[in-house]
Design brief:
Length: 755
């Protein structure tokens, strides 16, 4: 450890703590920063970080905390935004927004963070037995956001609530490092300097994105509105250097003049602005980390995609909501094929924006999708209305999406208009398909599905819902799902503008409800596209199974045109289970669909593989007692492997907004087992000796009560108060980083089981 020699030296030479040399301060700051990430950021990272104390960067620590909630399901009007790095830039500005400090400049030992750490050391949580009563681990708990001057009362009332909250305290070495660092005034870690090679890359990108002609400017706007949440990375001596794409009042080469708007397509408020790369010195949090590579190859591809095709941009689109919120109007000049290819090339990233965007608590947003389904895409070279520029231009008004408004919780007038427009688009699309079939211009067959051009792993995707969070991975993971989607350009674009570019986590309840209700239509559209690949006589059977007990209006919406749905396709099935046959065929045809990285059968000891195979095959109510996401560390004499257990909850239908529990079908609950990690919010860790893996699986199969699950966790679980919890956490994080060095991030423990 560096800290102890440092402190010993200070005592020997008689220096005061405030006289620590710069190099030693940096070493100390680096150690403290790593502890902050591993012990603090795992709860204080996303928008729903307790008390808005976000610790993924030094700026969040200096900003401090707030008693205001980001997630409030009762507000009727939009509220002021508090996005770190955007909505205020100085500590003074954050104080004006109601944030209070957790550090104390006059006496560091009076700072809230310092005292929270001391409180934990003074009142450690017992590592034996159950977690003491009084802890509230629910997402909607009453947060105790302690302002300066309130700590004594807090410590008296909640002596066990020191930090880390509801977890073991820091080790003695970690605590010494943290308190010493805080006593020195919490010196910042020096930000890395940009070397010449990195500066050249930045300059090349900023020059490319700020071309003077209308074609270049429209391209840059399109790219920005789709990458504004991306964790952009450039190569820096073999290591990723992280950036984000922003709008600035200042041109390249000058200090950034950040333009922060509520949505990326809002009016920037100045006549001249520039697209810039902003260096981000943040620790990646898995929930919001969305890597996207920027390099010379990508730049050349953008040029070939957007600038080399022959088309004219006579006039740039404005920023009025009716234009800017509708990409089919604002970007109609860009060829549809170019737009689709842009989204398709990184399809996982495109959809990941919906899943990893600002929705940290997404039950209302996510109960619109099944717990497990596969996604495929229309081939960009196939004959399809989604690839027809004239058709999409003609339907642009029907493709408009809900925009943020204040007012009543649900404005039925506006909602009826959106629903009517979407129905009109679906009818026009169905009529288009029928007319093509009648002319012989369309052949709906296996080649209609994009195969990834032989080398792109984005052609087949799997989405998992974990109640109020979700994950998306490349390949077809798990057993045959209940449903599948087929997505074309317009659907992919609308998902982005509805739930990413147009979604406002600070918006009113009406906006969030309208977004969720409209997403119903988009899910049905993806399902409709998939059903068209089934034999006509099977389509209603499948639809009716997916929508058991759903309102007739929802069921009928999946079948916009009876005529279209009764048309046959050009696929000749050989079995009496066409859905399974189609998905199995696609798994063989599409590049990367087999998802070998996640297949535990390929990477496990024989006994472990057999046990997990049995677990996946055993469908039933016993699975309902498992958490949504569990990490299982199987340890043997010669192996040490990590798996994820994903519980897939069964529902009669997902076409209704409320009373989700009434539609639960526990008898249809299943488990997907994968090698490695899926899920940013683990609910529980299990450690299993390889010799006991069959016992572990057998005990899962016998779960029938909370008590039987408690028996499982006592034997194999890692409870929050386990003395070795942080040891296990560090091990899993290290394993994740080694497996996926670019895409991995820190897990969030806000959903880790407490009881």
């Amino acid at each position: 450890m560096i800290i102890r020699p440092t402190l010993w030296l200070l005592l020997i030479v008689g220096l005061t703590p405030g006289m620590v040399f710069a190099g030693e301060a940096q070493a100390l700051a680096g150690q403290a920063n790593r502890i902050m990430q591993q012990r603090c950021m795992v709860c204080h990272g996303c928008y729903d970080a307790p008390c808005q104390l976000k610790l993924e960067a030094d700026e969040g620590l200096r900003r401090g905390a707030s008693k205001d909630l980001v997630y409030d399901g009762t507000r009727l009007t939009a509220v002021n935004m508090t996005r770190l790095f955007d909505d205020a830039l100085t500590e003074g500005q954050w104080r004006d927004k109601g944030f209070f400090p957790v550090l104390d400049e006059k006496d560091p030992r009076d700072g809230t963070l310092y005292r929270m750490l001391q409180l934990k050391q003074a009142h450690p949580m017992s590592a034996e037995g159950p977690i003491p009563e009084g802890f509230d681990f629910s997402l909607y708990r009453d947060q105790q956001c302690v302002k300066p001057g309130e700590f004594d009362a807090y410590a008296s009332k909640f002596p066990l609530w020191g930090m880390p909250y509801g977890f073991p305290g820091l080790s003695s070495d970690e605590h010494e490092i943290m308190t010493s660092w805080l006593q020195q005034g919490a010196p910042r870690v020096a930000k890395p300097l940009l070397d010449d090679a990195l500066r050249e890359q930045i300059a090349a990108w900023e020059a490319f994105l700020n071309g003077d002609d209308n074609k270049s400017r429209l391209m840059a706007r399109y790219v920005y509105e789709h990458l504004f949440l991306a964790s952009l990375y450039l190569e820096d001596n073999g290591e990723p250097a992280w950036f984000r794409l922003v709008r600035s009042t200042t041109p390249p080469g000058r200090n950034l003049g950040l333009i922060a708007t509520r949505r990326p397509y809002d009016d920037p408020g100045v006549p001249t602005f520039y697209y810039r790369l902003q260096r981000m010195n943040v620790a990646p949090l898995d929930k919001i980390h969305m890597p996207y590579r920027f390099d010379s190859e990508r730049l050349d591809w953008y040029r070939s995609l957007f600038l080399e095709p022959e088309y004219n941009v006579a006039k740039l689109p404005g920023y009025t909501p009716d234009i800017a919120a509708n990409p089919f109007r604002s970007f109609r000049a860009i060829p549809v094929k170019s737009r689709y290819r842009f989204l398709l090339e990184e399809a996982q990233f495109t959809i990941m924006n919906f899943i990893k965007g600002p929705v940290c608590r997404g039950q209302v947003a996510l109960n619109v999708i099944e717990d497990h389904f596969w996604v495929m895409f229309i081939d960009p070279n196939s004959k399809d209305p989604d690839a027809d520029q004239a058709f999409l231009t003609a339907e642009a008004d029907n493709l408009r999406l809900p925009v943020v408004r204040t007012g009543t919780p649900v404005d039925l007038f506006y909602w009826h208009r959106y629903a009517k427009s979407h129905a009109a688009f679906q009818q026009a699309k169905a009529d288009y398909i029928v007319s093509e079939l009648e002319r012989g211009d369309r052949a709906l067959d296996l080649d209609t599905i994009w195969r990834g051009d032989g080398n792109n792993p984005n052609a087949a995707l799997t989405i998992f819902r974990h109640f109020d969070t979700a994950s998306i991975v490349q390949g077809f993971v798990g057993r045959e799902p209940k449903t599948a989607w087929v997505i074309g350009y317009s659907l992919l674009e609308r998902i982005h503008y509805l739930l990413v570019a147009g979604f406002d986590v600070y918006g009113p309840l009406s906006h969030q409800l309208e977004s969720r209700l409209y997403m119903d239509f988009l899910r049905m559209e993806g399902e409709f596209n998939f059903l068209m690949f089934m034999p006509p006589e099977q389509r209603r059977t499948l639809r009716d199974h997916w929508y058991r007990d759903a309102p007739p209006s929802a069921v009928q919406h999946v079948f916009i045109s009876t005529q279209a749905m009764e048309r046959d396709n050009n696929i000749r099935y050989k079995t009496d289970n066409p859905k399974r046959e189609f998905l199995s065929t696609m798994r063989e045809r599409i590049h990367g669909a087999k998802a070998a990285d996640y297949d535990f059968r390929l990477n496990s000891a024989a006994t472990t593989a057999r046990a997990f195979e049995a677990l996946e095959q055993h469908i039933g109510a016993h699975n309902s007692y498992l958490p949504d996401v569990s990490f299982v560390n199987v340890i043997g004499d010669d192996r040490d492997e990590v798996y994820t257990l994903l519980r897939n909850s069964g529902y009669s239908n997902i076409a209704q907004l409320f009373k989700e529990e009434d539609r639960r079908l526990p008898a249809e609950d299943s488990v997907t087992v994968v090698s490695g990690f899926i899920g940013a919010y683990p609910n529980y860790f299990f450690q299993v000796n390889a010799a006991e893996i069959e016992d572990f699986v057998a005990q899962i199969g016998k779960l029938d009560s909370a008590a039987s699950y408690a028996d499982l966790t006592r034997r194999f679980g890692v409870p929050r108060n386990a003395a070795h919890f942080w040891q296990v956490s560090d091990k899993l994080h290290n394993r994740y980083r080694n497996q996926r060095p670019i895409s991995s991030g820190l897990f969030d423990y806000n959903r880790y089981s407490g009881r």
